[in-house]
Amino acid sequence: MKDSNAQIGMVTDTVTGLTDGSMTPGDDILISGEKIRVIGDAEGIGVFLVNEEGKATQVTRRLTQNDPKTVIARVPDGLADGFYTLRIVTQYSNSLTLLKAPRVIEYKHQLHVGDIDDGGDDDRPVIE
């Protein structure tokens, strides 16, 4: 199969405006990329957040924007703190045709809900 150029380029938390991978449950993320429009009638089409154990949570709310270069999706309320892989499954090819089989596009950076615990110490002195 030849390269489709379909990719997720950047994800922005619309509440904070941050592009650091943070997401706010109950609010939107703006997904920018190429050929990311969510369309098709095959099983499994949609936007998913996949946790570290591999459990996928589908975005069930109607997409606020769903274009070839921009998708705005609502992060599900109650999404547990942790790290997630953003996955888009679509049959979008171009404005005239759909793919016969769904294409899976994953964001190359992890997203997260809640504070990141990097395990390291900060630069402040410890007072005992």
How would you concisely characterize the structure shown here?
With 128 residues, this protein is mostly beta strands.
Description:
This protein is an all-beta fold and 128 residues long. 0% of the residues lie in helices and 41% in strands. It has strands at 7-13, 28-34, 46-51, 56-58, 65-66, 70-74, 82-92, 98-106, 111-113. The strands form two sheets. Strands 3, 4, 7, 8 and 9 form a five-stranded antiparallel β-sheet that branches. The radius of gyration is 17 Å and the shape is globular. The N and C termini lie far apart (61 Å). The relative contact order is 0.25. The model has no long low-confidence stretch (mean pLDDT 90).
Uncertain ranges: none
Alpha carbon gyration radius:
17 Å
The N- to C-terminal Cα distance equals 61 Å
* Quaternary structure state of the chains depicted: single chain
Number of strands: 9
Global morphology: globular
Q: How would you spell out the order of helices and strands?
A: EEEEEEEEE
Which secondary-structure class do the elements indicate? Answer: mainly beta
Biggest beta sheet summary: 5 strands, antiparallel
Mean pLDDT: 90
Number of helices: 0
Helix content: under 10%
Approximate strand percentage: 35-45%
Search tags:
128 residues; mainly beta; five-stranded antiparallel sheet; four-stranded antiparallel sheet
Could you give the topology of this structure?
Layout: E1 7-13, E2 28-34, E3 46-51, E4 56-58, E5 65-66, E6 70-74, E7 82-92, E8 98-106, E9 111-113
Antiparallel strand pairs: 1-2, 2-6, 3-4, 3-7, 5-6, 7-8, 7-9
